[in-house]
Design brief:
CATH superfamily: P-loop containing nucleotide triphosphate hydrolases
Strand content: 5-15%
Helix content: 40-55%
Distance between the termini: 22 Å
Radius of gyration: 17 Å
Shape: globular
Order of helices and strands: EHEHHEEEHHEHEHHEH
Strand order of the largest sheet: 2-6-1-7-8
Number of strands: 8
Number of helices: 9
Bound molecules: 2'-deoxycytidine-5'-monophosphate
CATH architecture: 3-Layer(aba) Sandwich
Structural class: alpha/beta
Largest sheet: 5 strands, parallel
CATH class: Alpha Beta
Amino acid sequence: MAFETDTAPSFTGVVALDGPSGTGKSTVARRLASRIGAHYLDTGAMYRAATVAVLRAGVDPQDADAVARVVAGMRLDVSTDPSAPRTVLDGRAVDAEIRSAETTAAVSAVSAIAAVRTQLVQQQRLLIASAPTVAEGRDIGSVVWPAAEVKVYLTASEQVRAERRAGELKGSDVRAVAAEIRRRDAFDSTRAVSPSHRPDGSREIDTSELTVDEVVDMLEQLARQSISNRKVRT
Ligand code: DC
């Protein structure tokens, strides 16, 4: 079922939105999902929730076997309503905890573990298969859903990304945030399993000089084009 909006016709496919942090992915993906009546899936939130489970269990995020055991035993539920996205771990909402500095520092290590990715990708595919979805992450267009009707890779200059992230984490120092972003980018793009990169067939949009609404307008146009292309083909 698609969420109700006042715009027609409905988008019935998948929008895969990939890119590093600070490119505006989450805000854009949520707003786009609301506009086109689709579900919204934040896959980064799922890797972050797995990291919370690992930290709670007192397990070293580098210990692949121990991490895989914790993640196999956790219960993760996500709401894909773009007006109320929620991440629930073992029955309790963890929306604040998944954004903590401690979680952010450990999430790259946890998300690099093959068993963790296999499990979460499977859950992500089930969610995407159940409804029209705007899914955001690092590997949506390449691994999770390569057949997505719309595949976009968002970028932005390092300075802009750091300023946006520091703005979200009120009071943070832009230079420290830039260093953390560089560290995570380097790790995520060089890991052995599903390294973060621009998916084949994706369109790259540099958001450095664009407002959120300008990016959402561009994506909405691509989604609507994909509907009319499908009609022409059938
Ligand atoms: O988008 P984010 O900052 O919330 O993502 C958190 C981490 O999870 C990031 O370091 C990369 C990882 N991630 C991933 O490996 N694959 C995804 N599909 C989404 C996020």
